User: Which sequence fits this backbone?
């Protein structure tokens, strides 16, 4: 059993910044990839960013240059630093841990609005 808990969501003005965290706990038996996905109201869930077990980072074109994903293996935590936020970034952001298994958090809401 692995649990993922996201935090750091909230209301922010356009152009502002937020930092999301996702802490994993439970029986984590090996190195895993971790990623962030988001789902806006009425839209499909979409991939946003990933960081592999070896530290390789990839980003969706929509967030390149604005978002940064990182991980702290000692804490089993992945972060998403979000800068220059736009209203279209408004969504529920979900954390994912995958590799041998696949786990998802319950999400944290990010609202970008004035």
Assistant:
């Amino acid at each position: 059993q692995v649990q993922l808990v996201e935090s750091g969501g909230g209301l922010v003005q356009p152009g502002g910044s937020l930092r999301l965290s996702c802490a994993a706990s439970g029986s984590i038996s090996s190195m895993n990839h971790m990623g962030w996905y988001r789902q806006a109201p009425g839209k499909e869930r979409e991939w946003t960013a990933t960081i592999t077990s070896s530290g390789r980072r990839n980003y969706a074109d929509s967030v390149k240059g604005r978002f940064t994903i990182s991980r702290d293996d000692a804490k089993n935590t992945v972060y998403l630093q979000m800068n220059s936020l736009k209203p279209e970034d408004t969504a529920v952001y979900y954390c994912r841990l995958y590799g041998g298994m696949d786990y998802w958090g319950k999400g944290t809401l990010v609202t970008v609005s004035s």
About this structure: The longest strand covers residues 18-26. The mean pLDDT is 94. Residues 38 and 46 are 5 Å apart (CA to CA).
